[in-house]
Specification:
binds cytidine-5'-triphosphate, 14 helices, eight-stranded mixed β-sheet, Rossmann fold, 25% strand, 2 domains, 398 residues
């Protein structure tokens, strides 16, 4: 595919060089376009050497008179990474002050935007409104991640990892098949929080990214998706019915309230196994001595679903530090699931808080499918692919 890679001015511009190289490696022809401010951060020479193309930068070079039209017509995809708040605003409003924004207006193909900016700029109503306009126009927005930003603040706005941007490109290159049309997929995601007192709780390091990636992928494949989510720092994926919960008990209530029409249930959430037996209704004051917190077991939602899942496909997750496959197989049996997605946690390669993951899909019937490290979105598609296979089997055998 012939891809225009627009690079705009931000600290993350240096990451676009690696992106250019990966795109070339995946067999694409890449035409880099740098805005004036991008040139303050990265050199055109880098992009020229990585792509073997003349880097386009300025609308007013003598030979550039109709270059933006030629480039727009001679390419299949426009990808802008990083996309600043300014370029989003220019695109949203059709301003054509620079080469890239002029090119954008003349371009008829699919557009992918990977924004990166300071958290306040990202959250500003003006940016929100511009993003909404761009989404409505059908453009793909690769959501920025949460983390420590170059400006020293912590929050959303960090350029998505290159693997996530490459995935968005791959989805344009190989459009998804709507093979989950007619399915109603109930997904749980994120951690739960179990109250200790009005200011404290017990929780875990689940970011919700895997469950949200599953929800997003299932929507794209044509499913109706209900996402029951514990507290996470992620925007609701487009087109899903969101149910936000906090505790394991609330998650259980939400799951059973939404269960009836569901044809597939994916229990991705990292639900607490224990909760404080007697949450205090006033803040517990510190004392010199050690304290003991009594914990009571929390009912296992997945196991309960396993008792009654009928024709519904039931997919559980197993997060283990050791004996991954053995425990996963045991969970599959004990909780009566059709598939367990087994993650390794702790140490290198841990799934928690990461944008990537590597898993084993342990199937009822004994098959084990190894899914090597990839973005959570790519893993989500592999899981859903197996669900499609199972649901076709279900139609025949059950
Ligand atoms: N799960 C659930 N309700 C709970 C606990 C877990 O539905 N109260 C589900 C999770 O959503 C996940 C699966 O059970 O799909 C596995 O959870 P995991 O944390 O791996 O382990 P546990 O079942 O709690 O087992 P272990 O005792 O090995 O930690």
């Amino acid at each position: 595919m012939r891809i225009i890679l627009g690079v705009t001015g931000g600290i993350a511009a240096y990451k676009a060089a690696d992106l250019a190289r990966s795109l070339v490696r995946e067999g694409h022809e890449v035409q880099p376009v740098l805005t004036r401010s991008a040139e303050e951060f990265v050199s055109a020479v880098t992009f020229a050497s990585l792509t073997g193309k003349k880097v386009l930068t300025n609308l007013f070079e003598p030979s550039a008179a109709i270059e933006h039209i030629d480039v727009a017509q001679g390419n299949d995809l426009l990808l802008v990474a990083p996309a600043t708040a300014n370029i989003l605003a220019e695109f949203a409003h059709g301003l054509a002050g620079g080469f890239l924004s002029t090119l954008y207006l003349a371009f008829r193909g699919p557009v992918i935007l990977a924004p990166a900016m300071n958290t306040n700029m990202w959250e500003h109503d003006a940016t929100r409104a511009n993003l909404e306009t761009l989404r409505r126009r059908g453009h793909v927005i690769v959501e920025p991640g949460v983390g420590m930003l170059a400006c020293g603040t912590f929050g959303a706005g960090r350029l998505a990892e290159n693997e996530a941007i490459l995935d968005a490109v791959r989805r344009v290159v190989n459009p998804v098949v709507r093979d989950l049309e007619g399915e109603i997929v109930l997904i749980t995601a994120g951690p739960t929080q179990e109250t200790i007192d009005p200011v404290r709780y017990i929780s875990n390091r689940s970011s919700g990214k895997m469950g949200y990636a599953l929800a997003e992928a299932a929507v794209e494949r044509g499913a109706k998706v209900i996402l029951v989510s514990g507290p996470v720092a992620l925007d609701a994926p487009r087109g899903v019915e969101m149910v936000r919960v906090r505790t394991a008990a609330e998650m259980r209530t939400a799951v059973f309230a939404k269960l009836e029409p569901a044809t597939v249930v994916i229990k991705c959430a990292a639900v607490a196994d224990y909760r404080p037996a007697a949450p205090a209704d006033r803040k517990i004051k510190k004392k010199g001595a050690a304290v003991t917190l009594e914990l009571a077991p929390v009912g296992d939602i997945l196991a309960e679903l396993g008792q009654t899942h009928g024709n519904r496909l039931l997919v559980g997750f197993a997060a283990e530090t050791d004996n991954l496959l053995e425990y996963a197989r045991r969970k599959l049996e004990e909780k009566n699931c059709d598939m367990i997605v087994a993650n390794r946690v702790g140490g290198e390669g841990s799934a928690f808080e990461s944008d990537t993951n590597e898993v084993f899909l342990v199937m009822k019937g004994g098959e084990v499918i190894e899914v090597p490290r990839a973005s959570k979105r790519a893993i989500a598609d592999r899981i859903l692919g197996q669900i499609v296979r199972l649901s076709q089997g279900v139609a025949v055998t059950r």
